[in-house]
Specification:
By secondary structure, this protein is α/β, with parallel strands linked by helices. It contains 5 helices and 4 strands. A hairpin with a 3-residue loop joins strand 1 and strand 2.
Length: about 170
């Protein structure tokens, strides 16, 4: 049911893939969330863990999906983490108990966690929803502060910037 008491179709991952109009928007919701799938999936960075509400289900992977650094590198997360994240988000979106709630991926304000969390939700859109990298990154186009670029895993000076969008584009 929506706010007007009308029955709304359950937007699971298959229904979302079939609808080309459900693309990320640029800008934030009144709660400060970035809209990934309108009315269904959101992303945000917070100072403290939020509480679930009747309208929002929050989840984080900051402690479960962790990058193993070589030196000063911090990501992007590996394929195993990416796969686990995709399966987790797909399960949340397909869970009928969450059908009437907005699913919100939150991460800490730590610049390294923010970049990895953004990479994961972009990868989910590309792998599961079959979106292009540019469409997947659209919600993050004007994010402030900008994401910390990933760096080479060597001990030397990093001579290039590898962005979240670069990773999404392959």
């Amino acid at each position: 049911m929506n706010g007007n008491g009308e029955k709304v179709a359950f937007l699971n991952t298959e229904a979302i893939k079939a609808r080309s109009d459900l693309v990320p928007s640029v800008g934030q919701t009144p709660e400060g969330h970035l809209e990934i799938i309108p009315g269904r999936l959101y992303w945000t960075a917070l100072n403290a863990p939020p509480k679930n509400t009747a309208t929002h289900h929050y989840f984080s992977v900051d402690q479960e999906l962790v990058y193993e650094p070589f030196f000063a590198d911090f990501g992007p997360l590996n394929l195993s983490c990416t796969y686990r994240y995709c399966k987790l988000v797909q399960a949340l979106l397909d869970d009928s108990r969450l059908a009437n709630r907005r699913v919100v991926h939150y991460c800490s304000q730590d610049p390294k966690k923010r970049a990895n969390a953004a990479y994961l939700i972009c990868a989910f859109q590309i792998i599961v929803l079959r979106r292009t990298a540019d469409v997947a990154y659209r919600a993050f186009a004007n994010i402030r502060p900008p994401f910390l670029p990933f760096r080479d895993a060597t001990t030397g000076v990093c001579t290039y910037q590898c962005t979240v969008l670069d990773c999404a584009q392959g």
